């Protein structure tokens, strides 16, 4: 057997419609930096805890992709729903879910969002309109379309933001959902997070049409490729898509060109790509460094940035502490929540 | 020789129909493909096309005649050169193979005449405890009972809607949703594309926000496309979310063997769904139970699998005339009391069970017949109490025996009433083969009243 193929060391493409995205205000830059940092530090900590055996099972880290959820969240309004697959910690933090509750779920403790019964891939928050957290690749696409159906049924102008990856984009129910969403003009933004690898299979080895923004073409769903490493580009595209949906024009596809720095899960050694490929993206396109550099260029003091670092580290450390000391669920919980 | 036109079968389960209208008169010339008559089934009005040429010789069944059995001669066609005098030569229908082909339905093509389906439900011996004494009853088909249940719940709660293939404009593939579009409009009665996996997921997603979808599968055979969403998303989410997020949703449609539709359209999923915690599984038999339990299923805050039976859709039964007739999920019903042996079944299995009980009574064996009605949660108490009385039990199901519901019932009896048993619990089930098409083989593959009688006698050592 030949060694696994290394994918070409290309970097995520620039956005196709040219030009720089609209500038952020200083406030927006600071918020984006803080929210992305929180996800990165949280995920680094989760990786550590996994290594220590405090987190079990599967654990899929979002490191590298932070600009996607943070930029999208900046484009949404109260009541818009978010749903995603199993690489979901970033989405939860971006919707404002409590870091303690997320981390305690990872460690399987009673203070976790699902009382310890869901784990990394299965968390929900009605309050934050976060609908999971789904472990079956592609299932969230039909479910997210159903959230949009509910908005349509109730006559609300809320939008369902349905995230899935380049791997899920090849599942059949995705296209069943596209068809119904366009047929019924449902307000759903399909955010395809193209991080270029479905587990260990690169996009070029799995997808006949590698331009995911065109995946809705045969249903007449408009699509756009977005530089998913630039939070400003993500927000601008998200606003455009949300406006389309809220105007009753039906679904919209955003292909977010992004990259995950870590393996598919904690147990993935990522032999299918070169170290150089990863390093190049980190060096050239890191979503957090982009914002930090812009802030420094705009004369924001190092001290201000350090204060953000410190705040984020405190939150993450506190969550790790909580998640390791919170008791496991009571044995009686085994039998609850099967029916209501 | 004159050709006989026979009453055609227009669906796999049709036994009789009404001759609504003749579109040709006696003496008129008929070309192949001409529509000669309209026939009403309980589902629809269908046109009958001639497949032979000639002159309409004699109309044997006048228009307006109701309940004409399939294969009854309804007219004769005279070939060129034949006259009315030749009519006497028309052969007896029993030997007339050609005649059976001379009329084919315009819409439902090539349905062969079929054997009689299961008989109508037997009158039950025990009054239903859910129905107050003296309640006025109306006679309804099971199809109508289901439709009324949905309509009543949709009137009651604006969050309830129906979605599925052909549920709206076509009025339902089996006409269960007849009239709902007209009353509730396209927003609440939604035709989906043929896309079971997708629309099951859409329904579940909508339910997660608090809406209450009724998702119709044209048959549960097609729901295998959607079973990932039903189990992984609908059944498990409440648990996986620590109780935060569940879904109130009904998946309903015909389940099990219809008639002569072969292996891919004739599977009983009772055991499959009743295996899964987080789901409730309902499989009624009588018209009243269909109505009362569907209403309960729609109100239930959990996902409910509502297994119907196509063979039963056209059967009639007494349904209480009450403003709000709801039967609680999870309660079996003793439909016939007896002291010698307990026969436990549900859905169309009850047809065999009740018929067998009649037969057994002739031999002095009084069977107690339990209609489970709900498979999950299972009413173990009613089963066990009966077995404690009779000491013997026979289960009857159309599905396969291995890992079947009968196996589960047997285990529960063993766990809870072992010391009361005078004989091993015996299962009567569908045979361990895919459903064959040929009429004789299909009959062999299904359980029969004779098998139930035999099993009951065996456990009674008779």
UniProtKB/TrEMBL annotation, chain A:
The keyword Ribosomal protein does not apply. It comes from Bradyrhizobium nanningense. GO terms for biological process: pyruvate decarboxylation to acetyl-CoA. The pyruvate dehydrogenase complex catalyzes the overall conversion of pyruvate to acetyl-CoA and CO(2). It contains multiple copies of three enzymatic components: pyruvate dehydrogenase (E1), dihydrolipoamide acetyltransferase (E2) and lipoamide dehydrogenase (E3). PANTHER family: PYRUVATE DEHYDROGENASE E1 COMPONENT SUBUNIT ALPHA, PYRUVATE DEHYDROGENASE E1 COMPONENT, ALPHA SUBUNIT BACTERIAL AND ORGANELLAR. GO terms for molecular function: pyruvate dehydrogenase (acetyl-transferring) activity. Its EC number is 1.2.4.1. The lineage of its organism: Bacteria, Pseudomonadati, Pseudomonadota, Alphaproteobacteria, Hyphomicrobiales. It comes from the Bacteria. InterPro entries: DH_E1 (IPR001017), PDH_E1_Alpha_Subunit (IPR050642), Pyrv_DH_E1_asu_subgrp-y (IPR017597), THDP-binding (IPR029061). Keywords: Oxidoreductase, Pyruvate, Thiamine pyrophosphate. It is an enzyme of class 1 (oxidoreductase). Residues 35-331 form the Dehydrogenase E1 component domain. Its cofactor is thiamine diphosphate. CDD domains: TPP_E1_PDC_ADC_BCADC (cd02000). This is Pyruvate dehydrogenase E1 component subunit alpha. Heterodimer of an alpha and a beta chain. Residues 1-25 are annotated as: Disordered. It catalyses: N(6)-[(R)-lipoyl]-L-lysyl-[protein] + pyruvate + H(+) = N(6)-[(R)-S(8)-acetyldihydrolipoyl]-L-lysyl-[protein] + CO2.
From TrEMBL, chain B:
This is Pyruvate dehydrogenase E1 component subunit beta. The keyword Oxidoreductase applies. GO terms for molecular function: pyruvate dehydrogenase (acetyl-transferring) activity. It is an enzyme of class 1 (oxidoreductase). It catalyses: N(6)-[(R)-lipoyl]-L-lysyl-[protein] + pyruvate + H(+) = N(6)-[(R)-S(8)-acetyldihydrolipoyl]-L-lysyl-[protein] + CO2. SUPFAM superfamilies: Single hybrid motif (SSF51230), Thiamin diphosphate-binding fold (THDP-binding) (SSF52518), TK C-terminal domain-like (SSF52922). Keywords: Lipoyl, Oxidoreductase, Pyruvate, Thiamine pyrophosphate. Residues 88-135 are annotated as: Disordered. Residues 88-126 have a biased composition (Low complexity). Its EC number is 1.2.4.1. Its cofactor is (R)-lipoate; thiamine diphosphate. It comes from Bradyrhizobium nanningense. Residues 2-78 form the Lipoyl-binding domain. The pyruvate dehydrogenase complex catalyzes the overall conversion of pyruvate to acetyl-CoA and CO2. One of its GO terms (biological process) is pyruvate decarboxylation to acetyl-CoA. The keyword Oxidoreductase applies.
